[in-house]
Amino acid sequence: MKKRAVTLLLAxxxxxxxxxVGVRAAGGxxxxxxxxxxxxxxxxxxxxEIPTAGKSATEQIRAVYDYIIRNFERYxxxxxxxxxxxxxxxxxxxxxxxxxxxxxxxxxxxxxxxxQKTSYxxxxxxxxxxxxxxxxxxxxxxxxxxxxxGTCQHFASLLTLLxxxxxxxxxxxxxxxxxGDGSRVEHKWNCVLVDGQYYWLDVRMDHAYYESTxxxxxxxxxxxxxxxxxxxxxxxxTYSDWLFANAASIQESYVQAAAEAAGPWGRCxxxxxETMEQAGEAGLIPGSLSGTDLTAGISRAEFAAxxxxxxxxxxxxxxxxxxxxxxxxxxxxxxxxxxYGLGVVSGVGEGRFAPDSTLTREQATVMLGRVxxxxxxxxxxxxxxxxxxxxxxxxxxxxxxxxxRDYVGFFVGSGVINGMGDGRFAPKGTMTxxxxxxxxxxxxxxxx
Length: 448
Hints:
By secondary structure, the protein is an alpha+beta fold. The chain folds into 2 domains: about 230 residues, C8orf32 fold (Roll), CATH 3.10.620; about 180 residues, no CATH class. It is about 45% helix and about 10% strand. It has a 5-stranded antiparallel sheet. A hairpin with a 3-residue loop joins strand 4 and strand 5. It is elongated.
């Protein structure tokens, strides 16, 4: 996806008809912005009012869905606006530089303008399915936020904007709603991308039920069956079929856009950024982690590669390739076999290595400790010869397994490991990629 600068939305209209195509959180998702500073600023202001922290993807979407239904009305504008347009424009000017920095760092991405949403009609020329472009979405969402009232298109646009800021690609579909008596009215609704699959949403129609009953029915919330959806919705399904068929690749394209903007080690926590850059320059981070989300749990195969690089940095020697028979039936990864040959990793039983399984913090610490022993003495021990610090300072020290205590104590005493910052070591917690790299790099810096 080509980068574009964050801009101010200059033309704001209450209801926009067909327009030409305009000029990417929680859960590891990268927020998707529309690229219009005033609208994206307002989205962040609204999200402060919506409790989404610590919730699953579906729960976050439901929280936004509920908020829109309870706080907005079908079009009946009386001239009252909940934000001052001039104040918003001034604030957006202040936000533009910050948003551009976030975009350049891969902390946010811009909503993709999908070429597949256009089709050539010999009578009409190129047409846009569902008004699904960022400019139209931003225009309608902006006015919906200011006036707190709008048509189905405004409801759908606002849902697109807010879910985007939570990291969900949300698309607008245009067609007709089929009433109970068979009559039809022009209508707009959404589909949202969650974990590689799109789901149907119709916030305005669930809002209509709320208007008449005071409760939310969720009749049109997160549905997957197209045939069921067609009972009350009619539309040209060319665009939506393409979306559903390409959901996984669309999701991956957002991940790649953030990675490309951030650079090889950019997708990490703020506390880890400088260390990741230094570790990458030192050759500690394996190529398999380049451009990945370093806040995610590290797999056993990925950790084996880090362990090999750790060994080579400590010893200035190349870890020998494994020349024996592969002891594992589920991987032939050369770094796994090198680490196995060094004696710093082993299998999980029955000839398996489980390369994609994640490691706990104590398991990863033990493996790094074995690398240190090997580099320091020429052989892998059990940690008992290491000078280990007292672990009673951790509130969960009793949870650290016996086989891991000496290794954890060694790295703590050496100043390499400081725990989680809240008094815990969290031994059974998942070791993240950035945590593993930080421990290894700190060990090289402190102990070599």
